[in-house]
């Protein structure tokens, strides 16, 4: 198990900037706006051969009693409990604040190793930048500039000396990346917390609470998964904040990074064009799909029948996907939903035998030949698998560019039924043989 380093401090002191530098990514959103990071955000860092997990947290507001800042503070405190080492970031330009004193007192009570990090010190000498912060009583401060990288290597040399040396766990098998996507406030974060059995991400009755895509490793029935909690996707015309625009990009990237996407719908609202649009993007990305209609426990029988009819009418292009009617808060329907996730993942990475594919294509032609185009009829010779996630089947023959879309859908249906490819999109591509006599000297 890799040691854990938590980045803690007031809002807007540069925690996410340091997170991105330590993980050598741009996974954490960065903007000159307090309260941007809200959930715990995990990333992998490395210093030479030494690896560690870095946890980016929301701003710790010790005086917040309720609302989103109180939830953020709760997430920060949980990160402190989980950590082996805390990097307490303060703002070298602002100097010591009363909130810094309160956070320092909390960290002393937590009995964790703490390194006091004075950020934003570019242009200052070490002694000048660190002088005011000795009064926090956390030892000698380390001065850095997270945005410029000044002092970060020296900081991590000191940090790694304080980390415990633990044997590495060997992961058993491949982790299934499962992204949970949908419109804002449909219950995505609640579903994540239900699957994990803890309040791992903030579930708040306010659209737009989740802004980053949060990656979380967990196991269920001895199977390893990585859950990805994503920001809700609004209609394009309703996305105004620049931060929210970045959140949309992060969500789309998370969908492409996933193996399986759980598209959550809100049973208390009608199925909207936005739901269909999100589903269309998932299909275009080639990701396996499971649909979960949430808040099912709150509906009467009439409303349930109406929602089922709407799902069948507006999402008819998702006929290959499994639909589940669930409640993330009760909970019910979760076990069946996760079984469909496993099946969809297995289908996405299925290995399709070339002889079996070729025999199936020949059977399809015997049952129904492709229509003629002029005096020629396309001839399908053989087929083989061209890729996975999603499965790609390449069919070779002559004059295949004349095959219409309805015949292509016929082949897709037969291949899907024969190989039991439920829950995953399927791509069928045609490759026509080149006639050497077509080119004249």
UniProtKB/TrEMBL annotation:
Claim: Secreted is one of the keywords in the record: no
Q: Which PROSITE patterns match?
A: G_ENGA (PS51712)
- Sites binding GTP 1 sit at 9-16, 56-60, 119-122
Q: Which GO terms describe its molecular function?
A: hydrolase activity
| Matching CDD domains | EngA1, EngA2
Its domain of life reads Bacteria
List the InterPro entries hit by this protein, alphabetically.
Answer: G_ENGA, GTP-bd, GTPase_Der, KH_dom-like, KH_dom-like_a/b, P-loop_NTPase, Small_GTP-bd
Limits of the EngA-type G domain: 3-167, 176-349
Which residues does GTP 2 bind?
182-189, 229-233, 294-297
Q: Which family does it belong to?
A: Belongs to the TRAFAC class TrmE-Era-EngA-EngB-Septin-like GTPase superfamily. EngA (Der) GTPase family.
User: What is the role of the protein in this entry?
Assistant: GTPase that plays an essential role in the late steps of ribosome biogenesis.
Annotated protein name in UniProt: GTPase Der
**Classification lineage:** Bacteria, Pseudomonadati, Pseudomonadota, Betaproteobacteria, Burkholderiales
User: What gene name is given for the protein in this entry?
Assistant: der
């Amino acid at each position: 198990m890799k040691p854990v380093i938590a980045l803690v401090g007031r809002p807007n002191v540069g925690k996410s900037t340091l997170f991105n530098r330590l993980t050598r990514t741009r996974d954490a959103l960065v903007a000159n706006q307090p309260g941007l990071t809200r959930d715990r955000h995990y990333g992998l860092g490395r210093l030479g051969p030494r690896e560690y997990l870095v946890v980016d947290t929301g701003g710790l507001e010790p005086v917040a009693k309720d609302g989103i800042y109180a939830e953020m503070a709760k997430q920060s405190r949980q990160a402190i409990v989980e950590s082996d080492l805390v990097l307490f970031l303060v703002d070298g330009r602002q100097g010591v604040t009363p909130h810094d004193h309160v956070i320092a007192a909390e960290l002393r009570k937590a009995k964790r190793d703490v390194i006091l990090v004075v950020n934003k010190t570019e242009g200052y000498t070490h002694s000048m930048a660190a002088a005011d912060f000795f009064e926090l009583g956390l030892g000698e401060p380390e001065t850095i500039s997270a945005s410029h990288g000044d002092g970060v290597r020296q900081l991590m040399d000191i940090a790694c000396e304080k980390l415990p040396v633990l044997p590495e766990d060997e992961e058993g098998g491949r982790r299934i990346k499962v992204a949970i996507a949908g419109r804002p406030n449909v219950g995505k974060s609640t579903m994540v917390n239900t699957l994990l059995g803890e309040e791992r991400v903030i579930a708040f009755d306010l659209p737009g609470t989740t802004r980053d895509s949060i990656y979380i490793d967990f196991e269920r029935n001895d199977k390893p998964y990585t859950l990805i909690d994503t920001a809700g996707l609004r209609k394009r015309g309703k996305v105004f904040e620049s931060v929210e625009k970045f959140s949309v990009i992060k969500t789309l990237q998370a969908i492409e990074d996933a193996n399986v996407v759980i598209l959550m719908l809100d049973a208390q609202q009608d199925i909207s064009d936005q739901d269909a649009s999100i589903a269309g993007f998932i299909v275009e990305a080639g990701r396996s799909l499971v649909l979960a209609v949430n808040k099912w426990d709150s509906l009467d029988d009439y409303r349930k029948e109406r929602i089922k009819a709407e799902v069948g009418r507006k999402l008819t292009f998702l006929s290959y996907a499994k639909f589940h009617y669930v409640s993330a808060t009760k909970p019910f329907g979760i076990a069946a939903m996760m079984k469909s996730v496993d099946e969809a993942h297995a289908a996405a990475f299925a290995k399709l035998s070339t002889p079996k594919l070729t025999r199936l294509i020949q059977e399809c032609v015997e049952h129904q030949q492709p229509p003629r185009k002029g005096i020629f009829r396309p001839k399908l010779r053989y087929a083989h698998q061209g890729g996975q996630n999603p499965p790609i089947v390449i069919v070779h023959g002559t004059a295949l560019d004349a095959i219409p879309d309805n015949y292509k859908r016929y082949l897709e249906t037969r291949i899907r039924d024969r190989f039991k490819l439920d829950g995953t999109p399927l791509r069928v591509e045609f490759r026509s043989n080149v006639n050497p006599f077509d080119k004249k000297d």
